[in-house]
Design goal:
about 190 residues; alpha/beta; Rossmann fold; two-stranded parallel ribbon; 5 helices; 8 strands; globular
């Protein structure tokens, strides 16, 4: 980048991937959103699958929420906060992801797995990797995993386990690097 010129902020929205009532992953999403907002190089917003306007009576582009599609097209990268339900991902998250295709190509995605058990959503992330690869997204190698999420936050949703601050920083550092590299590639290197 030429001297004196500043890079435009990366637009990295955070997708909260479950509509369930009483979702513990909402605390995780709010914590991570606040950590992202501390970084001047990132512009972000919350995309809650609960609030998307999608029809369940159709498939593909016919069920697409146009506002969601605009945000994904504009996005340089994504963060997906996803709870593990019986070793898998929430169906509504998959439905939301399937609403777009070309909008995802060559963009970074970082996963934040959430579980009530000891594995921190690692199995849900494993299950989502082939999905996002098929969509054209590029997953970071550093995930952020919240094990026993019920112990990481108090009743008001405040973080009680400070180890997640450092883990979130490491996670975001890699996501920012990969997002910058892929944006540079999309903007300067023609596809083959």
């Amino acid at each position: 980048m030429p001297e004196g010129q500043t890079e435009k902020p990366l637009y990295i929205p955070l997708i909260l991937g479950t509509p369930r009532q009483g979702r513990q992953s909402e605390h995780v999403a709010m914590f991570l959103l606040s950590e992202i907002r501390k970084r001047p190089e990132i512009e972000t917003e919350l995309i809650d699958v609960r609030a998307l306007k999608m029809t369940l009576s159709d498939a593909g582009r016919e069920m697409q929420d146009p506002e969601y599609a605009k945000k994904i097209l504009r996005a340089d990268g994504l963060v997906i906060v996803v709870p593990e339900y019986n070793h898998g991902y929430p169906g509504l998250l998959k439905h939301a992801l399937d609403m777009c295709l070309d909008e995802y190509i060559h963009k970074a995605v970082g996963f934040c797995g959430v579980s009530a058990g000891p594995f921190g959503g690692s199995r849900v992330i494993e299950n989502l990797l082939p999905v996002v690869r098929e969509l054209g997204l590029v997953a970071t190698s550093t995930d952020l995993n919240f094990s026993k999420v019920q112990d990481a936050f108090d009743d008001a949703g405040r973080l009680t386990d400070e180890k997640y601050v450092g883990r979130a920083a490491k996670f975001l550092n890699e996501l920012v690097w990969m997002t910058r590299v892929l944006r540079y590639g999309r903007e300067t290197i023609p596809p083959l």
